[in-house]
Write a structure and sequence with these properties.
The protein is mainly beta and about 110 residues long. It is about 5% helix and about 40% strand. The termini are far apart.
Length: about 110
């Protein structure tokens, strides 16, 4: 099952920016390095799965200097049951492909 979430905050810069929309595969297998969505008391968070432990997943922000950043350094490992799913793609804003302009041709 797939669901979508919106990114807020700067804790995952430069990979994710506020306003990005992500497609998330619910209950997917998580591996170290994956981006995941997890439940926290204040709502959902998007973090990088760093390592599994007996208590759950250790989740970290990519941007440790972001103001207000909250991750496992603050609240410890997140129980497996609180991992909503794995991010499979960012679908908004769409990636823009910029092609170089065609060279001027002499007439």
């Amino acid at each position: 099952m797939l669901t979508s979430v919106s990114v807020s905050g700067d804790s995952m810069l430069p990979v994710l920016r506020p306003g990005d929309w992500l497609l998330v595969r619910r209950n997917a297998i998580v591996r170290p390095g994956d981006l995941v969505v997890a439940r926290r008391p204040h709502g959902l968070i998007v973090k990088r799965a760093f390592r599994p432990s007996a208590e759950g997943w250790w989740l970290e922000s990519d941007n440790q200097s972001a103001p207000g950043r909250q991750d496992s350094w603050d609240f410890g490992a997140v129980p497996e049951t609180d991992i909503v799913g794995r991010v499979v793609l960012r679908y908004w804003p769409r990636v823009s492909f910029r092609f170089p302009p065609a060279p001027d041709r002499a007439s």
